Amino acid sequence: MTNLFKSMRLLTSLFLLLTMCVFTSCDSDEVLLGNWVQQSDFDGTARTGAVAFTIDGKAYVGTGFNGMNRLDDFWQYTPESDQWVKVADFPGAARSGAVAFAVNGKGYIGTGYDGTSNLKDFWEYNPATNTWTQIADFPGTARFGAVAMSLENKGYVAAGYDGSYRKDFYQYDPATGTWTERAELSGARRVNGYAFAINGKGYVGGGLNNGILEADIMEYSPATNTWRNLRSLNKAERVGTDFPRPRANATVFVLNNRAYVVGGTKVTEVSPENFQSSPINAPAQNDVWEFNPATDTWRMLKNFALIGRESGISFSIGDFGYVGLGRNGTVWSSEIWKYDASRTDN
Length: 346
Hints:
This protein is mainly beta. 8% of the residues lie in helices and 43% in strands. A hairpin with a 2-residue loop joins strand 17 and strand 18. Keywords: Kelch repeat, Repeat, Signal. It comes from Pontibacter toksunensis.
């Protein structure tokens, strides 16, 4: 598996270099693809189903599945130096399909699947001391494939799979160390969807529900604890406009009040257990879509990399978005790519 991945990466790199030499002087080591710039590879093993959060201009990435084992290692990324440094291992059970968010200078990770059981424990990471502390368990059922986001100094976790598809929604307040159940999603139940926050509101979309790829997009207002459905991703509700096809296991980051949804898979017949524990024999996607919640509109951008990606990680720091890890079929990736919206290649 490792040799196959290295061979594919070598062929991809050679293709990129040959392509760039046609249009540039090739006087730089920088690997470009449209608005994407390849960064240093992740220093841990290639993996899928990892988590990521950012604190004070640094990213923290860990856990996941490398094709053989669940993982508990954690790494810190500094964009200025483009370097990875190993930090304290995650002390809970090694897992994939967990969720993570950051609030008030601390990172939080919980739920997931350890290869045998679904999980509901939750942990807090303090980068100042490089230590982990267990906090109150997630109050919903043990699950994997949930979604998470941060809003107004609180963390939120929703949906996932616990043996059934879920649409419940919970808030964590670090100030009190307590969880509170909030209004459930206004759309469908789902596993392996995506979530993000923009301008004080939360958004949930994508994912799989009983063999159906969900097309709904929901907006959450914490001030009123209410959801509203935006226009779904179908021709009937988006006549004459571009929009992405429904998908599961996409990754998303936010820049300048826009969300960028990258990759994922459009496979519709797979059990949630196998979604986390064995390869999917379906190609991952490499399309990129920019979403403007102020106008509820989508814009298709140039593709991400040359090989599709699903179950990866993403984060944003400063003026850049980052996407990496994940897999395509049976090939696991350790690549990290930076999205530079200032380039004029879209």
